[in-house]
Design a protein that fits this description.
The protein is an all-alpha fold and 446 residues long. The chain is 77% helix and 0% strand.
C-alpha cells in the first residue's frame, strides 16, 4: 500500500526519482542566487539551457540509454515532475495570451487609422506566407541534397493514421469566432483578433461621436492592460527556472535509438533550420539591424521557443521583446506576433512538410519534377494558414500537405519520424518564432 502511494500517487517511488528532483531544485537555487546577484538575463538563460542539457543526458545515462524511457518507472516519475515545473510555466504564459492580445489590439485600434490597420495586416500575412514558401524551398533543396528516403524503410506504426484533414474553406471559416468566448477558451488567437478588431472599431467610432459613453470603457481597457502587462513581466522572470526543466524533460523522455533511426532526417531538418535562420538574419540586416545585436536582444523568445516547443506559449515574450528591445510600436508587435503564432510558420508549416514529402516520394518512387515542386509549394502555402502555435500541431500541417499532394496513404511510413517529433519540434518552433519577429521588424520598417 505504501509503495503504491509513493509510486502511483506521489510519483516518488524510487531513490533515483528523489535524486533527480533534488538536482532540479539545486538548479532552481542556482538561478535564484544568480538573479539575486543581478546577473544578466541572457547569461542566466544560457546557464539554464546548459544545466538542462546536462541533467537530461544524466537521466538517460542513469537509465542505460533505453529505447523507450517511458517504460522505466523512475524515468516516468522524473519526467512527470519535470513536466510539472516546465509545462506549468508554459500554462502560466498561455494564461495571459488571450487577454494580452485582446486588450492590446483594442487599445491599438482606438488610436490607429483603419486603413493603416488593414495595410498592416495585409503586409504581415504576405510576409509570413512568403517566408514560409522560402522555408519550404530550403527544405526541398536540403531534402534532395541529403537524398532523404532513398533505400530507407522507416518504422511504421499500424495504429498510426492520417489525421482528419479539413478543406481550406473550413479552415478559414473556423477562424471566424461565431462564439468569441469559445475562441478565447480554445486559444483561437486569430478569432480573438477579429473580435478585438470589431470591439476596437466600435469603441473608436462611439468615442468620436459621444466620448462620455465609452470613457469608462476606455479607462477600463487601459487599466486592465496595465495589470495584465505586470502579470506578464512577473511570469517572464520565471523563465530561466522553467527552461532547465523543459529541456531536461525533452531529452530524458526520448530514447537515443529512435533518434539514430532517423538521424538523416533530423540532420536535414536542423540543417534547413540553420540555413533559414541565416536567411532571416540577412533580412534583418537589410532592415538596418546588426545581426549580432539582434541575436542578443532576441535571445529570450528564441530560447524559450526552443525549449518549450510552443509558438503560442512564447507569444507574450515575443511581443514584449519586439516592443522593449526593438522599439516596435505596440500595434505592429501585437498583430504580427499574434498572426505569426497561428499561421505562416517557417519551421512547422514550411521546412517540415517539405522534407517529409521529399522523404516519402523517394521511399515510394514518386517522380519529383518541376510541376511536383510547384504544386508542393502551393499546398504548403495554403496549409500554413491557421496552424495553432502549440506543440505537436506540425503533424496536422504534414497531414494536410501529404493529402494535398495525393500522398495521404503513405502517412504511416513516417511513424519513425513522428516518434521523435519533440526533438524535431524544438528547432522548428525556434524558427517559427524567429520568422515571426523577422516579419514584425520588416513590416515595421516598411
Amino acid at each position: 500500500m505504501q509503495n503504491t502511494f509513493l509510486s502511483e500517487y506521489l510519483l516518488i517511488g524510487s531513490f533515483k526519482t528523489v535524486l533527480f528532483l533534488l538536482v532540479l531544485f539545486a538548479t532552481f537555487y542556482v538561478n535564484w542566487k544568480l538573479q539575486g546577484k543581478k546577473i544578466n538575463f541572457t547569461l542566466r538563460m544560457l546557464t539554464s539551457i546548459l544545466m538542462g542539457l546536462i541533467i537530461g543526458g544524466a537521466i538517460q545515462f542513469a537509465a542505460g540509454f533505453p529505447d523507450k524511457p517511458s517504460d522505466i518507472s523512475w524515468v516516468k516519475e522524473v519526467t512527470s515532475w519535470y513536466g510539472f515545473f516546465g509545462n506549468g510555466f508554459m500554462d502560466l504564459l498561455k494564461m495571459i495570451v488571450v487577454p494580452i492580445v485582446f486588450l492590446s489590439i483594442v487599445r491599438v485600434i482606438i488610436n490607429m487609422k483603419g486603413k493603416d490597420l488593414g495595410k498592416l495586416t495585409a503586409k504581415t500575412l504576405t510576409m509570413l506566407i512568403l517566408t514560409t514558401i522560402l522555408a519550404a524551398i530550403t527544405g526541398i533543396a536540403v531534402g534532395n541534397i541529403f537524398n532523404l528516403g532513398s533505400g530507407m524503410q522507416l518504422a511504421s506504426n499500424p495504429d498510426l493514421q492520417l489525421r482528419e484533414v479539413t478543406t481550406i474553406v473550413k479552415t478559414l471559416r473556423d477562424l471566424i469566432p461565431s462564439n468569441p468566448f469559445a475562441a478565447m477558451v480554445n486559444g483561437n488567437v486569430v478569432g480573438v483578433i477579429i473580435f478585438a478588431a470589431f470591439t476596437g472599431f466600435a469603441t473608436r467610432r462611439i468615442n468620436t461621436k459621444n466620448h462620455d459613453k465609452v470613457e469608462t470603457v476606455i479607462k477600463l481597457i487601459e487599466g486592465a492592460y496595465s495589470v495584465i502587462s505586470s502579470i506578464a513581466m512577473t511570469i517572464i522572470k520565471l523563465m530561466p527556472y522553467a527552461v532547465t526543466a523543459l529541456l531536461a524533460n525533452t531529452i530524458a523522455s526520448n530514447g537515443l535509438s529512435s533518434v539514430v533511426l532517423v538521424l538523416d532526417f533530423m540532420m536535414a531538418l536542423y540543417t534547413s533550420v540553420v540555413i533559414m535562420f541565416i536567411i532571416h538574419l540577412i533580412i534583418i540586416a537589410l532592415n538596418g539591424i546588426n545581426p549580432v545585436r539582434y541575436l542578443k536582444d532576441a535571445f529570450a523568445p528564441i530560447a524559450l521557443a526552443f525549449t518549450s516547443r510552443s509558438s503560442l506559449g512564447t507569444l507574450p515574450v515575443t511581443i514584449e521583446t519586439l516592443i522593449e528591445k526593438f522599439k516596435l510600436d505596440e500595434g505592429t508587435a501585437t498583430l504580427a506576433g499574434s498572426l505569426g503564432a497561428n499561421m505562416g510558420m517557417n519551421g512547422c508549416a514550411g521546412i517540415y512538410p517539405a522534407l517529409a514529402v521529399v522523404t516519402v516520394a523517394n521511399m515510394t518512387g514518386i517522380q519529383m519534377d518541376i510541376s511536383f515542386y510547384v504544386m508542393l509549394l502551393i499546398v504548403i502555402a495554403i496549409s500554413s494558414l491557421g496552424i495553432a502555435g502549440i506543440p505537436g500541431t506540425a503533424t496536422i500541417a504534414l497531414a494536410l500537405t501529404l493529402s494535398g499532394m495525393g500522398m495521404g496513404e503513405y502517412f504511416p511510413l513516417l511513424g519513425g519520424i513522428i516518434a521523435i517529433d519533440p526533438i524535431l519540434d524544438m528547432g522548428r518552433t525556434m524558427l517559427n518564432v524567429n520568422g515571426t519577429m523577422t516579419t514584425a521588424i520588416t513590416v515595421s520598417k516598411k
